[in-house]
Write a sequence for this structure.
């Protein structure tokens, strides 16, 4: 649709130049003013002539009527009508069946790529689980939103660096080491992996809580002491810490493989331990550090924010210190044009604070830092908490969904080849699609029955639609092609092509808004439009060979666009279901 909008905008621009020497409105601005009418009977696109009234010194009604005649010169428009100051435009059927279809079939996997990111680098910080804690449903947001944004930017031509900023440092390791030394078993860790580490973590937290209710701080103090030993390089504790990290990464990789995610860097918080002092010293030299009750802070009261804590009373660092050091390292290493951080909305203030500190420090790339927040996830209304064990593990959620798909396959298509692979693709896809169907800022109360439903606007529905296109093309036995001498006559043909040609601007919108659900909704639109076309139009059985070839081309176009869009939201293409 962007190409169509561009042609229309260029014609409107020529019209303006014919009427006035004022060229203050350019083609890009005109494209931005084109609208989709609320009712498709009014046309495919509309231009509000009110925007030209002052420029042309005529009423919007008169401008629309005059401009309608000039649109005859625009090859992609078949009809232009003036309606109450709007110019309503209908896209040419021949243009749809020729130019639009040909572009999709010719571009293939490249169709819809905006190429706005050529020569630019984006660093994306996402997923980033805390070591020795399992992947649970609360990690789903940062992981799939983050990877979807990476796929979107790569699709648009950006060079992307995906960073898994592991939570591999902090007082929680003092607790875990204390628990392991008191109750742990090396054999059980080797056998049960991260699940056993979680049990130890829950046990130590419960024990600390019980002690502190009685005014006893023995375990809490011991845990802090064990972490301090880590900080000063105690060999035993460092070896335990490295072991816990290795076990955790092995478990995380299983989940990433199921989703289809890889990272370019796993540098976690520990990597920046020796890089923080330089940034603290820079803050001190610039006079930005202030002492408040023994702690070192940056005063942000001029920006209506609480102070940003840089050092605790005992001189130890905090999250802002590490994040600033990490951002400086990444800028110097990757020379990014944009650095995106995908975390929960609960961290908005944290990012606002340290972004502002980076600006105050004089780093001229401060405005390249972007925080992408998302809403919370609860389980049937209950807040998630690893300390208490109130979590649903992603591996268990995926397993439940995969098992359900296996049951459906056994009932409906028992002879399906690669049943396990297909079941995993659809089962995992169902969970991801369910999550990304929501606006990222929406709080989600995760109800398993809804997530695993295979009715309605779901992942399995769109994956089945993709499989249907594959089946049709396999049966067709001929190459898909555009039809320059064929004008679309069926409204379902036209609707499908108009939907497909919106792909590029949908990609740009998703990137602009950092919103994967824009792609998810588009996929649903394509699936709905294709299925109407499939049910209402004969494809393989139509007698007219020209119509048959054209409709096969439409099937191929739908398959191409669906496949391209699937890749942007971590959804796997399923050729058979």
């Amino acid at each position: 649709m962007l190409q169509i909008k561009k042609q229309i905008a260029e014609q409107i621009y020529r019209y303006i130049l014919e009427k006035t020497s004022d060229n203050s409105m350019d083609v890009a601005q005109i494209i931005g003013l084109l609208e989709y009418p609320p009712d498709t009977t009014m046309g495919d696109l509309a231009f509000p002539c009110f925007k030209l009234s002052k420029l042309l010194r005529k009423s919007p009604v008169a401008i629309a009527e005059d401009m309608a005649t000039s649109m005859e010169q625009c090859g992609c428009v078949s009809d232009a009508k003036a309606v109450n100051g709007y110019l309503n435009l209908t896209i040419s059927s021949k243009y749809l069946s020729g130019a639009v279809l040909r572009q999709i079939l010719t571009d293939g996997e490249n169709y819809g790529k905006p190429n706005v990111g050529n020569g630019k680098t984006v660093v994306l910080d996402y997923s980033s689980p805390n070591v020795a804690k399992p992947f649970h449903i609360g990690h789903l947001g940062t992981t799939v939103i983050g990877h979807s944004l990476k796929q979107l930017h790569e699709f648009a031509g950006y060079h992307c660096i995906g960073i898994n900023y592991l939570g591999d440092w902090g007082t929680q390791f003092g607790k875990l080491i204390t628990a392991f030394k008191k109750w742990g078993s090396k054999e059980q860790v080797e056998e049960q992996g991260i699940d056993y580490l979680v049990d130890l973590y829950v046990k130590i937290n419960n024990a600390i809580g019980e002690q502190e209710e009685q005014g006893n701080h023995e375990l809490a103090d011991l845990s802090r002491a064990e972490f301090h030993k880590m900080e000063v390089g105690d060999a035993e504790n460092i070896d335990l810490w490295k072991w816990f990290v290795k076990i955790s990464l092995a478990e995380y990789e299983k989940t990433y493989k199921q989703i289809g995610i890889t990272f370019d860097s796993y540098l976690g918080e520990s990597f920046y331990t020796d890089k923080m002092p330089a940034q603290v010293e820079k803050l001190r030299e610039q006079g930005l550090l202030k002492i408040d009750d023994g702690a070192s802070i940056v005063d942000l009261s001029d920006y209506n924010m609480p102070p940003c804590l840089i050092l605790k009373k005992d001189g130890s660092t905090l999250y802002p210190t590490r994040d600033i050091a990490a951002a400086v390292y990444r800028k110097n290493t990757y020379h990014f044009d944009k650095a995106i951080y995908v975390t929960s909305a609960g961290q908005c203030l944290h990012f606002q604070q340290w972004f502002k500190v980076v600006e105050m420090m004089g780093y001229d790339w401060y405005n390249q830092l972007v925080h992408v927040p998302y809403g919370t996830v609860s389980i049937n209304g209950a807040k998630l908490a690893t300390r208490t064990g109130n979590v649903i593990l992603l591996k268990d959620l995926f397993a439940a969904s995969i098992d359900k798909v296996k049951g459906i396959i056994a009932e409906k298509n028992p002879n399906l080849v690669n049943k396990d692979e297909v079941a995993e693709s659809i089962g995992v896809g169902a969970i991801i699609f369910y999550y990304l169907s929501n606006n990222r800022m929406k709080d989600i109360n995760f109800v398993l029955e809804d997530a695993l439903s295979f009715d309605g606007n779901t992942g399995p529905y769109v994956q089945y639609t993709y499989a249907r296109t594959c089946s049709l093309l396999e049966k067709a036995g001929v190459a898909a092609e555009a039809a320059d001498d064929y004008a679309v006559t069926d409204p379902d043909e036209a609707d499908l092509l108009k939907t497909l040609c919106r792909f590029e601007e949908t990609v740009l919108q998703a990137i602009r808004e950092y919103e994967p659900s824009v792609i998810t909704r588009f996929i649903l639109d394509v699936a709905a439009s294709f299925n109407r076309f499939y049910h209402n139009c004969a494809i393989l059985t139509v007698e007219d060979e020209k119509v048959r070839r054209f409709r096969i081309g439409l099937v191929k176009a739908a398959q191409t666009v669906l496949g391209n869009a699937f890749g942007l939201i971590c959804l796997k293409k399923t050729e058979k279901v």
About this structure: The mean pLDDT is 89. The first helix runs from residue 2 to 19. The radius of gyration is 28 Å.
